[in-house]
Amino acid sequence: MWHSWNGQQKGLPGERGECQVPIVCPGPKSTDYGLQHQPLWRPTVECVKDQFGLINYEVGDSKKLVFHVKEVQDGTELQAGDEVTKDVAEAIKKYNVGIKRTTITPNEKRVEEFKLKQMWKSPNGTIRNILGGTVFREAIICKNIPRLVSGWVKPIIIGRHAYRDQYRATDFVVPGSGKVEITYTPSDGPQKRHLVHNFEGSGGVAMGMYNQDKSTEDFAHSSFQMALSKSWRLYLSTKNTILKKYDGRFKDIFQDIYDKQYESKSEAQKIWYEHRLIDDMVGQAMKSEGGFIWTCKNYDGDSRTPWPKVMALLA
């Protein structure tokens, strides 16, 4: 599970497992890190996985790699637990560049197989929740490669709100009959209770999830700024007819920010913003020729992100 570059492996002094390995930063013609013919003028953070091992290193002016290692040794995690994943995110926030390879989100089988202390949450989710912001994915269209949807002649950029919702929800099994409530305790007032469901018989399942206005506002700004940078129209899709308060909050925040800060700029570029129901938006996207930005809540964006890949598939 060790990874080293241009140096010998060293031990793990302390819980975080830090070690330093000298390395020369890749130059303009280096093929390291996939940066062929592209100079690296700033530090980067790269996350390399090996099963549940996660290594984060920073390439700095000192031409050294600083490793933070979380790995499974004899089936046991280091005492740092999931802290190294948070370190990765904080380092990316500092240097503004991150390269992440695939990692494993453990399930019940993995917990038993590796004798993990707990079923760790998705490292992707942990990193995204710390970074905040929006994930944008755009297809690279080649004229000589036909697409599954022949009408798509321009890319569709999928914007995903990479924060909270199901990815930091609290879910549990309700073992039997009883009442599930959500309680809000203000810092300066009495509690407010909301009934979720009165369970009968064998029970069922329940979940509580949330988002924050500040993150939704940042999501809106990044989406509008992307639309202006591409000079493409922007669509936000939700299911506010069902989740009137939850999805309605996204819709209201987007509309308020657009009206106050982006409407005149959009009109100057002859583009616009529109909210659509998620099911209506799917049909609209299939019938369109592309050339727009479709921005979604976290889970919706997760399920739509394969769309840019589909645009490049062989018919």
TrEMBL record:
| Pfam families named in the record | Iso_dh
Q: Mind telling me which GO cellular component terms the entry cites? A: cytosol; mitochondrion; peroxisome
Family, per entry: Belongs to the isocitrate and isopropylmalate dehydrogenases family.
Keywords in alphabetical order: Glyoxylate bypass, Magnesium, Manganese, Metal-binding, Oxidoreductase, Tricarboxylic acid cycle
- Supply the name of the protein: Isopropylmalate dehydrogenase-like domain-containing protein
Q: Which GO terms describe its molecular function?
A: isocitrate dehydrogenase (NADP+) activity; metal ion binding
> Whom does it interact with, and what assembly results?
Homodimer.
GO BP annotation list: glyoxylate cycle; isocitrate metabolic process; NADP+ metabolic process; tricarboxylic acid cycle
Cofactor requirements of the protein: Mn(2+); Mg(2+)
Species, as recorded = Rhinolophus ferrumequinum
Q: Which Gene3D superfamilies match?
A: Isopropylmalate Dehydrogenase
User: Residue limits of the Isopropylmalate dehydrogenase-like domain?
Assistant: 45-315
Q: Which domain of life is it from?
A: Eukaryota
